[in-house]
TrEMBL record:
Record domain Amidohydrolase-related: where: 204-380
Protein name: Amidohydrolase
Domain of life (superkingdom): Bacteria
Pfam families: Amidohydro_2
Coiled coil: none
Length: 385
């Protein structure tokens, strides 16, 4: 049997967020909360006493995998309390802890969205912490929120907004813009309508979370235009996210009219999270539009054992040169680490299965893996890295 081994291949994570060291050691419940996509404080509570095997409220399969793999890494029992105690000890030197985890899985570069957490963390500090090259995507929504305060009219606002995006795009390490419009008014983007956008400006001035769909769509078009002018990439959040997402309008299909427009034929667009759970839609879009790409962040590693399934599913339609590795890690370096580790394990099984069935051979399988893990990133973003 030809077994594929991806451990020696480097990975570049094309979507994740920065964090800083925790000041106090984590309790087991706090640690689970850190691993979770939930931001609600009462989601994780103490386990019931009196049992040696504890199912903590809120614990899921991805967390169980994290505990199992960390126990292997630390050489301890795969029990939450033991793993967290070990982790707290190791994380006292947070820089060494982080860099050792990154080296362990050959994580060698990251595209970071500093739009979360708020207020934003320092890029230089995060770069020093991780010790790997960091590129940035610049979020448009905080710009809109900030500029609305100082600009009374829509005309002055939109001019300042465009100027702000240009300044950001002029920075070399900024590889593109990012939008979370899926969290605000959804992905069904309409044509630019200046009058309607203008009419909603007052509402947006009063409430930065207002739906203000026409205004948000207008701002998204401006971001597309500037990414086109700078030949940089627009990252669009698609699919699941945190509890705020406009779920009925978050699937990538809603973007197709926007992406098919003649004026955006050359615009590079990156579908963040690959539209999960609508990854077939994202994969289909990347298979028909030459400048649209997707990453598998969030679904990897948060669907746990399902990572194997989603890799296989994405490749049902997505071309090999369109899919990029990502994690959406956002609280602790173990997330970046587990992202690569679990992804490699799962991808090895998928590729080995394809070879066994005679769908591909070993050389091609390794090439497919390398494309997903770093080559597609290095090609698409070659002008700015
Ligand atoms: Zn994210």
């Amino acid at each position: 049997m030809t077994k594929i081994d991806l451990t020696s291949i480097k990975a570049v994570d094309v979507h994740c967020h920065p964090y800083i060291a925790n000041e106090e050691p984590y309790s087991p419940e706090e640690y689970l909360r850190k691993l979770s996509l939930s931001v609600l404080p009462n989601m994780f509570k103490k386990a019931k006493e009196g049992s040696s095997i504890k199912i903590f409220p809120g614990m899921n399969m991805y967390m169980q995998i994290t505990i199992q793999r960390l126990a292997r890494y630390f050489g301890c029992q795969p029990i939450l309390e033991e793993v967290v105690a070990k982790r707290n000890e190791e994380a006292k030197d947070f820089t060494a802890f982080t860099q050792n985890l990154f080296k362990n899985v050959k994580l060698e570069g990251m595209v970071v969205d500093f739009g979360y957490p708020t207020p934003p963390l320092s890029k230089d500090d995060y770069q020093r912490l991780t010790g790997v090259p960091i590129w940035e995507v610049y979020r448009i929504e905080p710009v809109m929120v900030r500029l609305r305060e100082s600009h009374e009219t829509f005309g002055a606002f939109i001019e300042a907004y465009r100027e702000d995006l240009k300044v950001a795009l002029n920075r070399k390490h900024v590889v593109g813009l990012k939008t979370i419009i899926a969290y605000r008014s959804g992905l069904e983007i309409r044509a630019k309508n200046e009058q309607m956008a203008k009419d909603q400006y007052e509402e947006f001035r009063l409430n930065d979370r207002a739906r203000a769909k026409e205004l948000r769509d207008y701002c998204l078009h401006v971001a597309m235009e500037e990414c086109t002018n700078f030949n940089k990439v627009l990252h669009i959040h698609t699919g699941f996210g945190d509890g705020e997402v406009v779920l009925p309008k978050a699937s990538p299909s809603f973007l197709i009219d926007l992406l098919r427009q003649e004026k955006y034929a050359e615009t590079k667009v990156h579908l963040v999270h690959g539209g999960y759970p609508w990854m077939e839609e994202a994969a289909f879009i990347t298979s028909i539009l030459p400048n649209v790409y997707l990453d598998i962040s969030l679904q990897n590693p948060f669907v746990g054992h399902g990572v194997e399934r989603i890799i296989s599913q994405v490749y049902e339609l997505a071309p090999f040169d369109k899919v990029m590795y990502g994690s959406d890690a956002f609280t602790v370096p173990e997330m970046n680490w587990l992202g690569v580790l679990l992804f490699k394990e799962c991808f090895e099984r998928v590729l080995t299965d394809w070879i066994e069935k005679g769908y591909t051979d070993k050389d091609m399988a390794v090439e497919i893996a390398e494309h997903m893990m770093y080559k597609n990133f290095e090609r698409v973003y070659s002008d700015y890295i």
